[in-house]
Amino acid sequence: MTLAALTKPWAATSYGFLDASAKRELRRKMLKAIAVPGCQMPYASREVPMARGWGTGGLQVTLTLVNPQSTIKVIDQGADDGVNAASIRRFISRVSGAAETWDTLDASIVQSRHRVPEETMREDQILVLQVPNPEPLRGVEPNMSIARQMHADADYGRLWLTLYEQLVRKGRIMQGAAYPSLVNGRHVMTPSPIPRWDVPKLNMARHLTFLSAGREKRLHAVPPFTRVEPLVFSDRPYRVEDHADLVCRRSGIAGYFMNEIPQDSGGSVFEVSDSNLGIKAIRRAEGEAVEIGATWYENGEYSA
Amino acid sequence: MAYVATRGGEKAIEQAERLFRQDLGTIDAARVEAIRQSMPYLVDRVMGEASLYDEDMAALALAQTGGELSEAVLVLRAWRTTQPRLAVAAPLLQEDLLTVRRISAAFKDIPGGQILGPTLDYSHRVLATDVLEGKPYNPPSVDPAATAAPMRQPSLADWQRQQGLVAPANDSTVAPDDIPDLTREPLLFPASRAHRLQSLARAETGGVLALGYAAMRGYGNAHPTVNELRLAEAEVMVRHPSGTEFSAGRVRVCQAEVTSKEKGGFLELGFAASFGWNEVKVIAAATLDLNSAEAPVGSPVHEEFYLSHTESVEASGFCIHFKLPHYVTFQSVLDAMRDAKAKAAAAKANQDVAVERQTEPAE
Fold first, then answer.
1. pLDDT tens, A182-194?
2. Cα A178 to Cα A114: distance, rounded to the nearest angstrom
3. Given A42, A170, A196, which is nearest B332 (Cβ)?
4. Which residues of A touch B74 (CB under 8 A)?
5. A20-225 topology per CATH
6. CA B114 → CA A77, B103, B230, B306, distances in Å?
7. What is the ipTM score, two decimals?
């Protein structure tokens, strides 16, 4: 037995970029996060070759999950070819050998910034959301030590109060994306800044969702079949964005979350935000045999 | 495929990166060496913020980022974090440092003497425009002292301890491998002393200066007096698995101790140290350390505030991330705003609606 036989050939970085000690720590924290749904787990959050705030939290989780058999989809604001999504997908594929895809149905891991795909995700898929601020209490308590104590006490009164104040002042809850939601009846989480449209997709979902904030060094999870309930008053039901009746000007499909494109002439047109769903619809309309999966929303109504 | 053809982001980002790199031109060993030789204080700053002591790599990082400091620190950190932690070096003691500069503002003279060493402190800051006129600047040579100052200098705080001015130091009982390591663990609050000093050691110089300056100007309660400022080289002593202790090399280090007033019968000390020679950073950092104990939560001199906001990689990354598209979240805000506006307009037009809106939530 020689020393050389016991070692591996030198490589500039480990498989999947992160070294074993970083992955071990992440796996422990990811398992903890699954065990206590919605509870933020601090992790070391190593530097990765991308700037903080550009998906480094999601990237670390994905790099820990990925293997050569994985198929990776990365979206930014719903689009696969957004500049940063393209950059992240290329990096993951380069360091892991995983296949790349734009199709939600083909992906084993979907890393996303600010959207949940419109096609219903399955048990064998994992959604990794990039999170800028994991702390739903930040707006009412910027000090994170105090906020942690508030989570421990399930002390969410001030969060309810801000929602109530919005109702009083504006006649409706003004929270846009990142709508605070109670997970498994215990921890309030901020579901990254996904639009309100996407929050119901996490409730009792078949897939596992990780939400990871690299800069803030926290991750949390929504395991499959876990309750995710937006904070609402019993007489003021939760309202998603009024996109149910909007029609995509390119693909012609309707009833999904849309991007608004302002027009020179005044007014706006709309394009479906889940860009690959739009592409598939166009290809199908052009006669290609393209499979479009079941979607969480049907005719603009949440139906799962 | 009309949908795809109108976008083409992947090609654009590749070309944008090429444009940046093309402007910088060929990066070769000579350029890296020139940066290392001519910009030692810049290299020191980058090594400190990257928490990686390697002059060649720091110079390379500067070369390949064109001197964009936050990018240079990020590439070094991203490389550093993939490297194994082989050993924990022996603690540095002040009296063992090979000291080149050591001053105290607290006393006119101190045991061991004030040693100015290399500094611009007393220079006139005049731009050497002659150089641009074709006359190179050749620095006058230094006249050696009659007797060289000793390489090793005692710690002023030790003398103060003997005089009963500073609280006795407790020997650490923590095993080297158990010292908390900020590069492998999250920073939690209240932070351990090790984490606080590590975080300050690799904090962004400008950020530490801004918040340290805020503390000095009056947003802190302790006005610093520089008890001891030291620039030195240190032997990195590690133990080989066979038991032999040896120096793995020398690193430049700097440290500052600042003091303010009496507390519990002793002078309070604030401390900071960093890789490289970066005086303004360690003085500002030591001032923040000094002010931490009594800082109100949420003030700029509170530990959670200044450590969170002087982290170079996080602060710069978050700042530049606002260049990313945010149209989904923005759309979500627009939706709520339009609906609220429509509601308000309808309420004005229709008294019934207004009455309902006023009474319901208040009940």
1. 999 999 999 989 9
2. 9
3. A196
4. 47, 49, 51
5. Rossmann fold (3.40.50)
6. 60, 5, 10, 32
7. 0.82
